[in-house]
Amino acid sequence: MRIGRLKIWTAAALVLVWALVAVQAGATPVGSSMAAIAMYKGADRQARLEAGARQEGALMIYTSMDLEESQPILEVFMKKYPYIRGEVYRAPGEDVAQKLITEYRGRKYLADVFEGTGIDVAKMIKETYGQAFFTPRAGAYPRQAKDPKGFWVATRYNILVAAWNTNVVSDADSPRTYEDLLNPRWRGRIGIEATDQVWLGTLLELWGEAKAMEFFRQLSAQQPLIRTGHTLLAELIVAGEVPMSPTIYNHRSERLKSRRAPIDWRPLQPAVAIPHVIGLPNRAPHPHAALLFIDFLLSREGQQELVKLGRIPAYPLVNAVPAYLNQGFSYKVIDPSTFLDKYQRYDALWQDMIIRARR
Amino acid sequence: MNGTAPATVRVLRPSLRARLPVQLLLPAGIAAIVAYLTLLPLIFLLYGTFFTPTVGGQAGTFTLQNYLRAYTDRSALPIMANSFVFAVGTMVVSLVIGTMLAWITERTNTPLRGLFFAVSLVPLIIPGILFTLSWIFLLSPRIGLLNLWIMRLLGLSAPPFDIYSIGGMIWVEALHWSPIAYLMMSAAFRSMDPSLEEAALMSGSGLAGTFYHVTLKLNVPTLLGASLLLFLRGLETFEVPAIIGLPAGIHVFTSRIYLAIKSYPSDFGLAGSYSTILLVMTLTGIFLYGRITREASRFATITGKGFRPHVIDLGIWKYTMATLIVGYLAVMVVLPMFVLVWNSVLPFYQRPSVQALSMLTIDNYTFVLKLPKTTRAVINSVGLSMGSATIVMVMTSVIAWITVRSRVPGRWLLDNLTSLPLIFPGIVMGVALIWVYLTLPIPIYGTIWILLVAYVTRYLPYGMRTSSAALLQVHRELEEAAETSGASWGRTFRSIILPLLQPALLAGWIYVVIVSIRELSSSILLWGPGAEVLSVYIFDLWQTGHPQELSALGLMLVGFLLVLAMVLRALSQRYGVQH
Fold it and tell me: By CA distance, what is B164's nearest residue in A?
């Protein structure tokens, strides 16, 4: 018994020591010169940012980008600015937005930049936690790729296309237009991603109320197979569980295809593109480092890093690899804040027509 | 139990003095800690239910609309019915499987039962996402391997199973939880006096009769505790409803809560109001449990009478039982593991075939090992889970003693307080804790400490059910004997109660370790850089589309935890109470 008790105390002590070692210090919020730093346009901007970042020495990136992708990009950035110690907080975009908003309500300011879908970044801005900023890089981006008020610039696109299992669906049978999805042959064989309200929203804006509602009504009668997660859906197509889906990211199916997986894809035109953008929280504790990172990710160099990782860049002068990921077809990008304003309606329609459309 | 009674007269006075403050201070102190852990999040949650969501920097306004919506929503009825059927089905199936297995391995001389303990834990260790996914690959009507095999074997034209059904959901969830039922029941069976069973057998009662009338009925507290726990897990769980239920069009209660939180603006008030329905259901369950187990001594199977648990000789039946065990392990462990191993060596999923064999690769393993932060996540998770399990079991064994044994006024309140966290679905708890620690000047937000607080709070009720069920079965006469011999309260607790509870405490400890390692829905909101944990890491691999790499990581994790479980088992046999 005595030995047993001794062990328990030793174990308890070990747990305590471990716990003390693991303790982390929280970051401290900074003052009000934020706008001045963010909007500065002088010729010595770069020098000032570097001097400021040298003092800050740290950068906290909130993003929805894969660790597999965000980590290498951060490493290239840190090679360029070795005095900045960068960290990534990665989670699904809506979780990142929620975390940031909750933290700001509790006056805890940790994030330096927020890179995620335009919709999630727009939530931060709508909550008045965004900061308009100037970056010389934005000039090269087309109008639709940046916020008119300067709160965000697009970094990459996820484009929704139709993809199918080539063992199950012949090329001749594969869908070429949105109307093809309504063909009786697809009854019970179409996979739909559960959180693609943006797909519905974009098509509704594009086609107008009457046409779009009719399309989704008929699509719902096709008894779609609902799955959560675009990548999972792509994997399930490869596995043969889902024959075809119009809500697959084309870069994802391209990557699977390059690994000899039985999958192929084609855009239904106009395709719906989901913009990913970068924004600056208005109480970022390391604003200089944050702006350097924004500049970097929007630069040719940063965008080429994204391409290396198989992503579709937002910078028009850098080509996606392969180039047909975003060329040779038309696609429509929704304005994030417009979408966000109508989100509750789109979500209600989506839940009603797609998610609960059951046999 | 080598503590001998010291000479009486000399010890009596100090023992009286030592006993008084402990019996007053301890309950008060413990109650304060429990109230802090469980009441604070609840207060923040309830406060939030009376407000509309904050949007665009505009604070929410006072409203009762959330409650109106939550309680009068007609479309919620079928969803509640789904939840109820799913939770009850999960509870019944996993209890039946778990109890049978516990009886076979603890009370009979079935061969191979020694092997069973460690292997039975494997499914608990497999992350829920992976376990569910592996069953889709086994039972999907389109690509399920079992379906394909059976169709070929029997020449069927249609697949015999469809995982996308309420039955499929219950099957996967119940299988996943059956080891918990097994753990709890086997701890109870192990410390049971076998003379009662023997008497029944002698008196001509058959094996089945003995099992039902004696073994089962004597273990009613544990059985009820386990039922309550499994039922609530079934109500609260999210992975199976999300991965199987959604495609099947079977929506459950938690999906409502998640939907309210995940939409924009996040409607915590509505989610909180829905959670109060869970509160009512939980409190009802606890109330019923309390009513049934009120006459505690009826269930006391551990008395002062000396016994050594004998096992029942099953005769020729033992081979049948061994077959059952092997069958269970095949379904539970071998099949899912096969799918995982198969997945982990492929570049993308394919049916087993000659062509697929040519594509085998170990890339997934090297990918996982090379990923940054893998080590930190493993260290954090192991430390956190063991830390929270230890804290939970120490706290709940004391709380159980207070609520079951002592006459402290208001002890029922302590029991209910401890059970409070049951009403929080993980994500709601996560949000409530964020609020608490962003509001209070306690700087643990974003660190590993908030995770520890979350795990301890979330799993207090589970530790509590294990501890109090076990304590109900220890007859008071043992403590009275110690007291009469002059032992102080602390001494009695350490030398008599703890050792007797040891099998149950160990079962509870292992349980909390495992559920903490797997805990996802709170962790995903509470973790921060430096405080990465495995479950979030795994979920992330899943979300970002690495099912093969995930299988590789999952398998390595299973191997690691399996070794851990076996070491612990060996340690407990060496240092624990010898039966």
Answer: A225
